[in-house]
Design a protein that fits this description.
It is built from three helices and no strands. It is mainly alpha-helical.
Length: 179
């Protein structure tokens, strides 16, 4: 019986050793599979991290290009605004110059039209003054010759005003052409 107990005990020890070894092998196999799965997941994560870094670098480069484009666009916009302002100033000068030219033409036409009748009036006053200078009327009414002299002076004054207008607008025309 002791021998039988020893044999049963040996079988039990062998069975328990086999069972423990088998359980441990299964546990190690599962652990090995988990380790492999973790390694695959880790590799995928590293690949995703690498792709994310590359995408981030591309995004950063694109952002820098956009900032550079924005700066170029701002510079172009400022140049356009300056050119537009210059164009507006030039247009205002041109309009002003054209207005002065139109006024000059009008003044020239009016001056010419005024000089003709003024010349006729001056000639008539000279003729009348010459005819009545030694006449009875001049002796009887000395103020007639005085009024004829006033007419002559006012015609000369009017002609001077017209000549000054011509000179002014000739000067404006010369200034307009030089611009």
């Amino acid at each position: 019986m002791v021998l039988a107990c020893q044999v049963v005990f040996s079988y039990m020890v062998a069975f328990l050793s086999w069972y423990a070894a088998n359980s441990m092998t299964l546990a190690f196999n599962r652990l090995h599979r988990f380790s492999q799965e973790l390694q695959i997941i880790n590799e995928k994560l590293e690949l995703s991290e690498k792709e994310l870094k590359e995408s981030n670098a591309e995004l950063h480069a694109t952002n820098e290009k956009l900032q550079l484009s924005e700066e170029e666009l701002k510079a172009s916009n400022e140049e356009l605004l300056a050119a537009n302002e210059e164009l507006r100033d030039a247009q205002e000068k041109l309009v002003r110059s054209e207005k002065l030219a139109a006024i000059g033409k009008l003044a020239g036409g009016i001056g010419h039209e005024l000089r003709n009748p003024l010349g006729a009036i001056k000639n008539a006053a000279y003729y009348v003054k010459g005819k009545i200078a030694n006449s009875e009327l001049a002796k009887k009414e000395p103020r007639v010759l005085e009024f004829l002299s006033i007419i002559d002076e006012e015609i000369s004054s009017s002609n001077k005003i017209i000549s000054d207008l011509f000179k002014f607008f000739a000067c404006c025309q010369a200034h307009r052409v030089s611009q």
